[in-house]
Write a structure and sequence with these properties.
By secondary structure, this protein is mainly α. Helix content is 68%, strand content 2%. The chain has nine helices and two strands. A two-stranded parallel sheet has the order 1-2. Helix 4 runs antiparallel to helix 5, helix 5 packs antiparallel against helix 8 and helix 7 packs across helix 9. InterPro entries: Ferritin-like, Ferritin-like_SF, tRNA-Hydrxlase_MiaE. Pfam families: MiaE.
Length: 214
């Protein structure tokens, strides 16, 4: 007697992400970016490695600058260690695939957000933390968008990153609210609009946080 096995369930990006994270982002990653990423698997991993290294560097800079904030010190120390571990994991994955790690120029994404940071404290720190939340949330969302299209090894790795990046987004947002002198919803809305603009406008070079192909 033959047995018909059920078709494997294909998990959508939304199934991997919390409703809170999806609501936090003003838009989803366009399909055009996903297609662009799949056409550039080497650049995807190289820039991913650079993003992990930059995330660790950002956490370390906050550790050095804001030594009077115990909760921030604890969270940024944890985050820096985890981001460096992810960097090592991406580099190892690249080596197994014959991809050499090299320097490539950064996308305009992070700088496009940071140009709006206020100069005076504590507003400066709060803005940086809000931006950190958006970068981590967008990274999480893009990993989830890519997973259904990737080979099993990379898809499994990116699934683990969806969980960790989601936690980083929550930590950044919690710290921003904890350290702000007043409610920050208007600043979150402001950066949500800026972030969505960057994600949806054209870019000439593919990067992990680039917009759509020009």
């Amino acid at each position: 007697m033959s047995v018909t096995l059920p078709e494997p369930v294909r998990v959508s990006a939304d199934d991997l992400l919390s409703a809170e994270l999806l609501d936090f982002l003003r838009c989803r990653t366009p399909d055009a970016w996903v297609a662009w990423a799949l056409e550039n698997p080497e650049l995807l991993l190289i820039d991913h490695a650079q993003c992990e290294k930059k995330a660790a560097s950002t956490a370390m800079s906050l550790l050095y600058r804001y030594v009077d904030q115990p909760l921030l010190l604890t969270k940024m120390s944890q985050l820096a260690r985890e981001e460096l571990l992810h960097f090592e994991q991406v580099v190892t994955l690249m080596e197994s695939r014959g991809i050499s790690y090299r320097h490539i120029s950064a996308s305009r994404y992070a700088e496009g957000l940071r140009r709006h940071v206020q100069a005076e404290e504590p507003n400066r720190l709060v803005d940086i933390l809000i931006i950190g939340a958006f970068i981590e949330a967008r990274s999480c969302e893009r990993f989830a968008r890519l997973i259904p299209h990737l080979d099993p090894e990379l898809a499994k790795f990116y699934r683990t990153l969806v969980k960790s990046e989601g936690r980083h987004y929550e930590d950044y947002l919690m710290l921003a609210r904890h350290l702000a002198a007043s409610p920050i919803e208007s600043r979150i809305a402001f950066f949500a609009d800026r972030e969505a603009e960057l994600v949806q406008t054209p870019d000439t070079a593919f990067r992990f946080h680039s917009g759509v192909p020009a």
